[in-house]
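Reading group handout, session on sequence-to-structure problems. Before we discuss, look at one worked example. The prompt was deliberately terse, the way you'd type it at a terminal:

> structure Putative outer membrane protein

The input record follows.
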Amino acid sequence: MKSAVFGVLFFMGVLAQAEQGPAYVVTPKSVEERLAELEANQHLRYLSFSGFLINTYDHISVSESYPDSLDHSDLQYLRLRFSLNADAEISPQVRVYTRLTTTKFVNNWRTQGGSPSYIQDIEGIYSNSGSWIFLEKAYVDLSCPESVWTLSVGRLPTVNGSPEHMWDLLPRQGTYPLLTFDAPLGGAALTYRADRLLPQDHELAVRLLYTPFVDVFWGGNLKYLKPPQDDTNGSTPVGNETDTLINMGSVQLDYSIQNPQGAEQAGFILQYYKSGRLPFSSGAGTSDLNVQVDGVTGLLDVIGIAQTGWDVSISHSYTNAISDGLLAPGLGFGTDQEHGSNYGSLTLLSTRYRWSSWAAGAEWLSSSDAPFYFSAAPENLTRFYSTPGHSGHLYLTKKWLSLVTIRAGYRQQNYSSLPLGFGPVQSTDRILKTYYLSLRTDF
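And the output record:
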C-alpha cells in the first residue's frame, strides 16, 4: 500500500512539474527547421488516419455422431482484431487507401493440430495466428478530371462485403458481395460510372476485376528463373511445369437508387467470377491436382422499408468447382475420381430493425449440394457463411457515443455435409452453436 501511495504522489508531482512549464530556454528554430516542419505539415494535409479495435468472446459447442464423434459443450475463446487505415488524397484524381490488420487470440499459450492457414498471403490476415501485422489492403484509385472511368491497382477492397455492414450499424464497407468471395485479393479493377446516363438519384457502376494468383519457384540462385511444377517431394519439385500467373477475373454490375417507392434506398449487384487452373501440392510428389472455380452472385439490399428502420438483404450464389487430377490416390477435390464437378448454391437472407442507437437482426443461410465459397476473412471462428446445410444467426447491437459498438449474438450451424475438400464430399450431422459478445471501437 505504501508503494502505491508513493507512486500516486510521484505521478502527481510529475504532473505539477509539467504544469509549471519547462526549465530550459527554447532557442529559435533555424530557417531549415522551419521549412522542414512546414513541408511535413503540408504532407499531413493529404493524409488521414482511422481504424478500429474489436474484442470478442466466443462460447462454442459442437455435437456430431458421423463421420466423427464430437461432443464438446464448453469451448471458450477470447480474441482481438486491430486495423489501422492510412489514406491519402494526393489530388482529386489520385487517392491511395491502405489498411494494416492483425487478428489474434488473447495471450495465446499454444496451438495444436497444424497450420492456421493454407495460403498465408490470403488467409493469414484473419487466421488469429498471432501479433504479426498483415497488409489487408493497399491500392490507388486513378481517374481523370470529369472522367467516368476509375482504375484501381493494388490489394483491393474484396472483403467485408454486403450484408456484413448491417451487424454493427455501419455504412457499406466492401465493394463486392459477401457471398461472391471474402478474401483480400490483389490486382486491378476498372470501374465505369454510368450515372450521367440515368435519371437523378440513380447510380450504376460497371466493374472489371483482374486478381490473378502468382505461383513462384524459390530454388536457390534459380529463383524466379524457372516455373514451378505440379508438386514437391520434400523440397524437390516434381511433375509437369505450371504457369507462374494463374488468371482470375470478374465482372460486376452495381446499381443503386435513392428514395425508391416504399424505401429510403435500394441496391442491386450482379457479379460473375472465374479462375484459371489452381495447382495443389501434397508435399509427397503424388499430386497433379488442379482446381478451377467459377460462380455468379446476385444481391439485393433494401434500406428503410416503408420509411421505417427495417432493412433487408437477400443474396444468392451459384458455384462450380471443377477438379482435374488427384492429390493422391482417391483424392480429387470433392471427388475420388480423376475428373469431377461440384455444383452448389448458397442463399442468405439478412434483416434487421433499427431504432435510436439499437438494432436487432437475424440471418438465415441455406445451401444445396456442394457449394464453393472462398472465405479467407471470416468474422466468426466457425466459418458460418461456408456452412453446407441450414444455419441461423440472431444478434442485438447497441451503438454508444457513435464510435463504440456492442453486439451480442447467437449462431447455429446445421451441417448436411462437410465443406468441400480433398476426397468425396462427406455427409454429417454436425451441429455448431456459438454465443458471442463483441466490443468494437472505431477511431
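Points for discussion. First: The radius of gyration is 26 Å. Second: The chain has a mean pLDDT of 90.
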